[in-house]
Amino acid sequence: MQNETMSSNPETRSASSRVVDALERPLHDLRISLLDQCNFRCPYCMPVSTFNSDYEFLKRQQRLSHDEIIRIATAATALGVSKIRLTGGEPLLDKSIAGLIERLAVLPGVDDLALTTNGMLLAPLAKQLADAGLHRVTISLDSVDKDIFARMSGDRGDLDRVLAGIDAAARAGLGPLKINAVVQKGVNDHVVLDLLEHFRGSGHIVRLIEFMDVGNRNGWRMDQVVASRLLLDTVQARWPVRAVGKNYPGEVARRYEYVDGAGEIGFISSVTEPFCGDCSRARLSADGKLYTCLFANQGTDLRESLRNGADDQEIKDILSSIWLQRADRYSELRRPELAEHHVLKKVEMYRIGG
Ligand SMILES: C[S@@+](CC[C@H](N)C(=O)[O-])C[C@H]1O[C@@H](n2cnc3c(N)ncnc32)[C@H](O)[C@@H]1O
Ligand code: SF4
Questions:
Q1: What pLDDT, in 10s, does the model give residues 146-183?
Q2: 3-class SS of residue 201
Q3: For residue 249, cis peptide bond before it (omega within 30 degrees of 0)
């Protein structure tokens, strides 16, 4: 395999071989969606018109077991993955998540183990997750206005509980916390400064995300997107900020810090300023499909291979060959007029977790 290279550091990655894709991008991050269910119904992700009592979520047997997840994660780390993020759906609905974290945290090569959650169930769990070996948490919170927050969670969220979850995560040492907010025109763009003000000086990093055309069910339209550069102008006018460099290659957020020292904010502009160039993420859905792009229309079924008896070397070979062929750069090639008409079949965000 041409693009595969042996690790230069045998002590840390003795049996590993790193792999790069057709555009020379390494496989560095693995996002694991634990389940497709969620206790929220954010209209931009799981609109209640579709995700109601008639909707059939995956049954337990259809989801990867924790043993199966560990096997795939082990193969991925052998190919160079060092960052793992657990997501969903809502990952904290998995009652044995702490046990899975304990096993992932000790995989050789994993130096960053993170979780993305809506925060509803976080407060009572934060310490247990940190004790299990979780390093960091990202909490999705679109507004600190109670009514707007309620609307953006599909009337399922309780703002005070999410804020308590954020405090508990900080106390448990799961920081620096990132607070992700999807900004939608006419929905929460007018209260973005309130959100920033709430967290200024807290040490938590608010990241403003452009509403993305993921999946086919959220009715995405370009005119609902608020371009990051407009939000940046709004922020600048209130609190001067200056750009800071990337923490690492492949970081999706453009980082800024308040000139007055009140901390950092970020912008994730996958619609207006796409960033496929150094994307190093693979995504595993709860039913075991591996996707090489957030906007992919199909994944490779690893569950079937596992359940048909593939051994560890075979799983590693499958992952490696998927990555070697990868040439995705949907965001850079996006055509909004096609996205608006939903003619492209794309995987839904709740299935692969953002
Ligand atoms: C799919 S959720 C899964 C984890 C968890 N339920 C949560 O909300 O944090 C992961 C992230 O995707 C973001 N997201 C979902 N749909 C989106 C969209 N259409 N555009 C931008 N971000 C989106 C959410 O705001 C969240 O931060
Ligand atoms: S963004 Fe997260 S919390 Fe909201 S519906 Fe999607 S999976 Fe659930």
A1: 999 999 999 999 999 999 999 999 999 999 999 999 99
A2: coil
A3: no
Residue 223 identity (one-letter amino acid):
D
Quote the distance between the C-alpha of residue 132 and its chain's center.
Answer: 20
Rounded Cα gap, residues 32 and 112, in angstroms: 13
Could you read off the pLDDT of 76-101 as tens digits, one per residue? 999 999 999 999 999 999 999 999 99
The pair of three-digit structure tokens given for residue 84, joined into one six-digit string: 């793992």
How far, in Å, CA of 89 to CA of 70, rounded?
19
Please report the atom of ligand 2 found closest to the CA of residue 154.
5
Give the C-alpha separation, 91 to 93, whole Å. Answer: 5
Cα diameter, the chain: 59
Does residue 165 line the site of ligand 1, with CB under 6 A? Answer: no
Q: Residue 189 carries which DSSP code? A: G
Spacing, Cα 46 to ligand 1 middle (Å):
10
- Distance between CA 168 and CA 278 in Å, rounded? 33
Pairs from 244-251 (Cβ < 8 Å, separation ≥ 24): 249/278, 249/280, 250/25, 250/28, 250/29, 250/278, 250/279, 250/280, 250/281
CA distances from 334 to 51, 87, 172, 276, 293 (A): 27, 25, 40, 11, 13
Q: Give pTM, 2 decimals.
A: 0.91
DSSP conformational letter for 298: -
Nearest protein Cα to ligand 1, atom 16: 45
